[in-house]
Write a structure and sequence with these properties.
By secondary structure, the protein is of the alpha/beta class. Helix content is about 45%, strand content about 15%. It has a five-stranded mixed β-sheet with strand order 2-1-3-5-4. The chain is globular. Bound molecules: uracil. Keywords: 4Fe-4S, DNA damage, DNA repair, Hydrolase, Iron, Iron-sulfur, Metal-binding.
């Protein structure tokens, strides 16, 4: 059986899609996942590309602040992205890039066996809910909700909220973002199944 460390090494050497040509570092993911919860963003930005670590830029500081307000240790989660390499200029990853990278996320899920996956934003929600046969038209239709399904042989709950970068652009979303994370990280997502 493959270990998470071996998978991380494979991701760092990946050439499956053209993003490997422009990246500085691939960003596999980090954290112990001890709480059985995985957080999945869209793709690395500039700071993440520079450091090879997920959510270490402005969106990451908002995520970190929200987690610490909730009393959750970031290191007890596992944090990753759907796409592991930075799209040039932080553009939205293409369908092809998501498809090329998705096998890595599936293997991360297979190894870590999380009970809950928190999808941040439309790209992550679309990719993850697509794996359990749900189409996402707009993130607003699914945010605040959790969906049960089997992914990579694992029974998981996929819970959706805004991407922290969207919250930074629109501070009115801040309260909802924090409430969603509180529910999803505290087990309160239980009333939110669909
Ligand atoms: N935005 C993401 O989606 N992921 C990161 O790791 C950083 C910013």
């Amino acid at each position: 059986m493959y270990t998470l460390e071996q998978l991380h090494e494979e991701i760092k050497r990946c050439t499956r899609c053209p993003l490997h040509k422009t990246r500085r570092n691939a960003v596999p993911g980090e954290g112990s996942g001890r709480l059985g919860i995985m957080i999945v963003g869209e793709a690395p930005g500039s700071s993440e590309d520079e450091q090879g670590r997920p959510f270490v830029g402005a969106a990451g500081s908002l995520l970190n602040k929200t987690l610490s307000t909730l009393g959750v240790e970031r290191g007890d989660l596992y944090i990753t992205n759907v796409v592991k390499c930075r799209p040039p200029g932080n553009r939205t990853p293409t369908r092809e890039e998501v498809a090329a990278c998705l096998p890595y996320l599936l293997r991360q899920i297979e190894i870590l066996r999380p009970r809950r996956i928190i999808a941040l934003g439309a790209v992550s929600a679309g990719a993850l809910l697509g794996l359990i046969g749900r189409q996402v038209e707009r993130v607003g239709d699914v945010r605040g909700k959790c969906f049960r399904g089997k992914v990579a042989g694992v029974d998981v709950e996929i819970c959706v909220t805004y991407h922290p970068a969207a919250v930074l652009r629109n501070p009115r979303l801040r309260g909802t973002f924090a409430e969603d994370l509180a529910a999803f990280l505290g087990g309160g997502g239980l009333e939110r199944y669909f």
